[in-house]
Design goal:
By secondary structure, the protein is of the alpha/beta class. It folds into two domains: 225 residues, Response regulator (Rossmann fold); 163 residues, Rossmann fold, CATH 3.40.50. The chain has 13 helices and 15 strands. The strands form three sheets. A seven-stranded mixed beta sheet has the order 7-6-8-9-10-14-15, with helices on both faces. The protein has a five-stranded parallel beta sheet with strand order 2-1-3-4-5, sandwiched between helices. It is globular and about 60 Å long.
Length: 412
């Protein structure tokens, strides 16, 4: 506990948490946060890591946050199912929960958005807010946007904007193979990659474009054989969880020596599958990398010490930072007033100053492109105890990855 306490004190001193001059009318209140994500099935390792992350970071913020509140997590397993997610929303509301977080799967995210919207329309005075920390379908903050939904991850199009900005300057990238999960995120990774590269590097060829079922493929050898036969020098994938881990394993087994450009290579199980052979070949785009400096790095180290696991979903920090800052500004934990305070909110986070864009409730933030490399004195962190980590090769300011929105927000 002393290590955690030191991390908190240092974080407070460094300004990781914003201070509030206003009187803390809500000080000492307990805020329940319902967590809806998979704790069973092929994606269970991801969910298990993320609920630990939420519980751990809640403890960090409970040591000190701008609002002076206490956070308590209420986790429910949705089995990656939209229907189970809808049921979970109802269960959490019955338990008095007014803040819900979810991240794995945009299908589940849409179900939660719909359930929250219907509840809020029918129950004025008992509104619920949904904080999305990893479901990245751009439609969630465009045509299907909701006032009660706030996304703290960068969406698929934002990450592809940053990734293709980096790709256009890589002369050795000439033939790209797309392989993605067959749902909204994977389909959009494919579409945005082709659209953006046609504008930025029209000479790049897309020599394959496969979509496969989500969380059900156990043998990727046939897909890898197609990649090898295509002559691709680069594989671009938005896969996550078992779908990326098993793809990497099959690629290693087949001796596939190409670049991998990913969204989620840091997620549970995949780093171990990468191993030494992937050094210098596997890249990821996201809002963080393995060797974040400063006080967030100390929190990452404390998590590792406690669980012998990696705290890689740093958007969890965005959630608590944004919530506690908005609660301090609005001087309440009331979901309606806190939602209003989060619109347009700017706050300092681990990846620079970020802003919750009022128009669509999409967080605007800096993004990294990072590469899998051997840990060294400057970058000592060992991901999944492999002796390797993801080290930044490029950081892009928020304006680079920012994409326009078509959201027509209906406000209460």
């Amino acid at each position: 506990m002393s290590l955690l306490g030191n991390s908190v004190r240092l974080a407070l001193a460094s300004g990781l948490f914003l201070t509030a001059a206003a009187a803390l009318a809500q000080k000492g209140e307990t805020v329940k946060i319902g967590w809806i994500d998979p704790l069973s099935g092929l994606m269970a390792p991801v969910g298990q890591n993320q609920i630990k992350s939420y519980q751990f970071v809640a403890e960090v913020f409970n040591k000190g946050n701008p609002a002076g509140v206490k956070f308590e997590m209420v986790p429910l397993d949705n089995k990656l199912s939209p229907q189970e997610s809808t049921n979970a929303v109802k269960s959490l509301i019955d338990q008095g929960v007014r803040y819900i977080v979810q991240g794995n799967g945009s299908g589940a995210a849409l179900a939660i958005m719909d359930a929250v919207q219907k509840h809020n329309d029918r129950n004025p005075g008992k509104e619920v807010v949904y904080l999305n920390y990893a479901a990245v379908d751009p439609d969630l903050t465009n045509g299907k946007c909701s006032y009660w939904h706030f996304r703290v991850d960068a969406d698929t199009s934002m990450k592809m904007e940053a990734l293709t900005t980096w790709m256009k300057d890589q002369a050795d990238i000439k033939k790209v193979y797309l392989i993605n999960q067959n749902y909204s995120h994977g389909q959009q990774v494919s579409r945005f990659a082709k659209e953006l590269m046609a504008r930025k590097r029209p000479d790049v060829q897309f020599v394959g474009d496969d979509l496969h079922p989500l969380a059900s493929v156990r043998d990727f050898a046939p897909y890898v054989a197609k990649i090898k036969a295509s002559g691709a020098d680069t594989v671009l994938t938005g896969n996550w969880g078992s779908d990326l881990t098993l793809l990497i394993k099959a690629s290693n087994d087949a001796g596939l020596n190409v670049k991998f450009l990913t969204y989620y290579a840091s997620v549970s199980g995949t780093p171990t599958a990468l191993g030494a052979g992937a050094a210098g070949r596997v890249y990821l785009v996201g809002y963080a990398e393995s060797t974040m400096p400063g006080e967030i790095g100390k929190v990452v180290d404390a998590f590792k010490t406690k669980f012998n696991d990696d705290y890689y979903t740093l958007a969890v920090h965005h959630v608590f930072n944004m919530l506690s800052t908005a609660m301090a500004q609005s001087k309440t934990t009331d979901a309606v007033k806190v939602a209003a305070a989060m619109e347009g909110l700017k706050f300092k986070s681990f990846n620079g100053e970020v802003e919750m864009r009022r128009a669509d409730h999409q967080l605007q933030q800096g993004l990294f492109v990072a590469v899998w490399k051997k840990a060294d004195a400057k970058h000592p962190y060992s991901v999944e105890n492999t002796g390797f980590n993801f080290q930044s090769v490029k950081y892009y300011e928020p304006y680079v990855a920012s994409t326009p929105t078509s959201c027509q927000m209906k406000r209460p």
